[in-house]
Amino acid sequence: MKSVTKICLLLIGITFTATAYSADDPLEKAIKARQGEMQLRSFNAGPLFGMAKGKIDYDAELAKKLAGNLKLLLDLDNGRAWAKGSDNENYAGKTTALPKIWTTYPEIADYGKKYAMAVNELAAVAGDGQDALKSKIGDLGKSCKGCHDEFREKK
Ligand code: HEC
């Protein structure tokens, strides 16, 4: 019985240590911040894709606002969230970011530039009607997917 208690306490100790470690781990914080930014992109881009496809009604004001939000996010200097070592080999199950991001750097920056260009072009016309939105949404989708295909673990 005694040894069982000891093992239990030991296991609890290990769990606590692991939790404390992850809460303070700067690389894990970086992963969360990076994924948080991606979630914001997705949250804002989602209805734009929906409107372009006619899955939801086109709403000029909303389209303008959401594309504007994507543009605002471009101004966020979130470089710290892309800290070296925060890849899916070191953090399996916590991130889908491939080590290639860092081993081929600055290749990913080109994908970032294409994305920024697509966002800027979309934001300029998103409020001008569904056709205008449609004319630029494809490039946005391609820029998201292009980077994911190259630098993100496939599920
Ligand atoms: C320059 C590269 C790049 C571009 C452009 C890009 N992404 Fe990502 N995205 C990534 C990487 C890398 C990850 C993996 C992040 C991780 O798991 O740490 C990711 C992850 C995500 C995730 C999952 C986040 C999570 O919680 O695990 C979503 C959602 C996402 N991206 C949406 C988008 C959308 C929508 C766009 C375009 C509007 C976009 N991304 C543009 C590189 C990019």
Number of helices: 6
CATH class: Mainly Alpha
How many DSSP-defined strands? 0
The name of the CATH architecture is: Up-down Bundle
Q: What are the secondary-structure elements, in order, as H or E? A: HHHHHH
Q: What is the CATH superfamily?
A: Cytochrome c/b562
Q: If you had to describe this structure to a student in words, what would you say it looks like?
A:
With 155 residues, this protein is mainly alpha-helical. It has a single domain, classed as Cytochrome c/b562 (Four Helix Bundle (Hemerythrin (Met), subunit A), Up-down Bundle). The protein has helices spanning 2-24, 26-53, 60-74, 100-103, 107-125, 130-151. The termini are far apart. Residues 31, 34-35, 38-39, 41-42, 45, 95-97, 108, 111-112, 115, 140, 143-144, 147-148, 151-152 line the site of heme C.
